[in-house]
Design goal:
- This protein is mainly α and about 130 residues long.
- It has 2 domains: about 5-45, no CATH class; about 65-115, no CATH class.
- The chain contains 6 helices and 2 strands.
- Strand 1 (about 5) and strand 2 (about 10-15) form a beta hairpin.
- Helix 3 (about 65-85) packs across helix 4 (about 90-95) and helix 3 packs across helix 5 (about 105-110).
- The chain is elongated.
- The mean pLDDT is about 75.
């Protein structure tokens, strides 16, 4: 858009060169096929802040708090069912051997079992 404007529905459309719009380059967008932000980093402080942001962004968990709560509840329910059943199968016997002192660790292991790990996370763990 050459000019910023507000349409009939009240939606603000900012011009591409507006101060609040990040610079965008169509050639870079087509090459890397992802979002990008081109900005000048003149100071060490701004550079370190950007590294911190990128590291947090790259290593963010894809598990939400409500997913953790549901999985913990299901694990607890499975443990209680295994202890109450009269004819336990192999899975029930495994749950019976679980100690409630390690419940939090078991919940974490259940959540992290199928989680993808990025190269940044691997490097962070190894270094």
């Amino acid at each position: 858009r050459p000019h910023s404007e507000v349409d009939e529905l009240g939606v603000v459309h900012l011009a591409r060169n507006h101060g609040w719009v990040n610079p965008w380059n169509p050639a870079i967008a087509s090459c890397i096929r992802s979002n990008h932000d081109i900005s000048w980093i003149p100071t060490t402080t701004k550079c370190l802040a950007l590294i911190y942001y990128l590291t947090n962004y790259a290593t963010k968990d894809d598990v939400s708090p409500h997913q953790m709560l549901v999985k913990a509840a299901l694990l607890k329910q499975s443990m209680d069912k295994a202890k109450a059943t009269q004819t336990p199968d192999a899975a029930d016997m495994r749950f019976r051997k679980m100690d409630m002192d390690q419940f939090a660790l078991r919940c974490f292991n259940t959540l992290s079992h199928d989680r993808e790990i990025s190269g940044v996370q691997i490097a962070n763990s190894l270094l």
